[in-house]
Amino acid sequence: MSLLKGKTAIITGASKGIGKGIAEVFVKNGANLAFTYLSSVERGQALEKELKEHGTQVKGYRSDASKMEDAEDLVAQVIEDFGVIDIVVNNAGITKDTLLMRMTEEDFNRVIEVNLNSVFNMTKSVQRTFLKQRAGSIVNISSVVGVKGNAGQANYSASKAGIIGFTKSVALELGSRNIRCNAIAPGFIETEMTAVLDETTVSQWREGIPLKRGGSPEDVANACLFLASDLSNYISGQVLNVCGGMLT
Ligand code: NAD
Questions:
Q1: pLDDT recorded at residue 193
Q2: Pocket flag, ligand 1, residue 220 (CB < 6 Å)
C-alpha cells in the first residue's frame, strides 16, 4: 500500500509505543517523515536509521512538545528540510496517575502541558503552512478515558477530553480551508506505558474488552493512516474509538 506516497508527516513522541507504530505504518505507506522524541536520543537515532530503510525521507528531531517555542522551531526546521508538511499527528503524551486525594497541582499541570498544550502548540505552529496550502490533516491521539473518564486519572482524562473539544473546534474553524482535524481514542493498547501494570490487572482488562485482547500500536496506526490519508477526505471533527469494542 502507498496511501501516503508523496506526503510529508510530522509525528510527535515517536521513539516508542504507539508513536513508533504510527511512524512505521506511515513510512511503509510511502510517507516522508519528520518525527520527534524528547530524551531518548539514541532511540531516536536508531529509529531514524530503521525507518529510512523503506526508502523515503526520514528525520528525527529532539523537541519538547509541551513547549511552544520548540513546536515553532520544529515546524520551521521541517519546512526547511522537507519543503512541505501535509499531516500532523499529535501523539506525545504522559500519565501521572493517582487519586484526586493525592494528586498534586504539579501532577495535574504537567499532564495538561504535555498532553493538551502540546496539541495547541503544534496546531498553532503549523496553521499558517496549512492555510497557505489550503490543505492539511491533523490527527490527535486522545483516549477512551477522555470520552468516559476514569478513576485515578482525573488529570489525564481532562487532558484527553480537552483534546476532543480542541479537535472539534479546529475542524469547525479551518474546514473551509480544506484543513481536516480528527481525534483517535485508543482503548487499552499494550505498550511500555501499560507494561508497568501488574499482570492480574492487565488480564482483567483484557477480559472486559469485547474483542478479548489489548490493542497493538499497529491497530492505532492503521486508524491513523486512514485519517491522515485521502481515504478520509470527507471526514473531519470526528473521534474514532480504537478500543476493541469497549465503547459503543
Ligand atoms: P509511551 O510512553 O510508550 O510513548 C509516549 C511517547 O511520547 C514517547 O515517545 C515519549 O518520548 C513521548 N513524549 C512524552 N513527553 C513528551 C514531550 N514533552 N515531548 C515530546 N515527546 C514526548 O506511550 P504510548 O502508550 O505509546 O502513548 C502514546 C499516546 O497514546 C499518548 O498520547 C497516550 O496518552 C495515548 N494513549 C495510549 C493508550 C495506551 O493504552 N497505551 C491508550 C490511549 C491513549
A1: 73
A2: no
Q: Measured in angstroms, how far is the CA atom of residue 138 from the centroid of ligand 1?
A: 17
pLDDT of 52 above 90:
yes
Task: Read off the pLDDT of residues 9-30 as tens digits, 9 standing for 90 and up.
Answer: 999 999 999 999 999 999 999 9
Please give the CATH architecture assigned to the domain spanning 8-242.
Answer: 3-Layer(aba) Sandwich (3.40)
CB 66 within 8 A of CB 93: no
* Separation between Cα atoms, residue 141 and residue 239, nearest integer Å: 10
Phi and psi at residue 82, to the nearest 5°: -110, -20
pLDDT above 90: residue 111: yes
Is the CB of 194 inside a 6 Å radius of any atom of ligand 1?
Answer: yes
Ligand 1 pocket residue status of 65, Cβ below 6 Å? yes
The pLDDT of 182-189, averaged and rounded, is 98
Nearest to 194 by CA among 153, 160, 226, 163: 153
User: pTM for the full model?
Assistant: 0.98
Q: Is 61 a catalytic residue?
A: no
Q: How far apart are CA 240 and CA 175, in angstroms?
A: 18
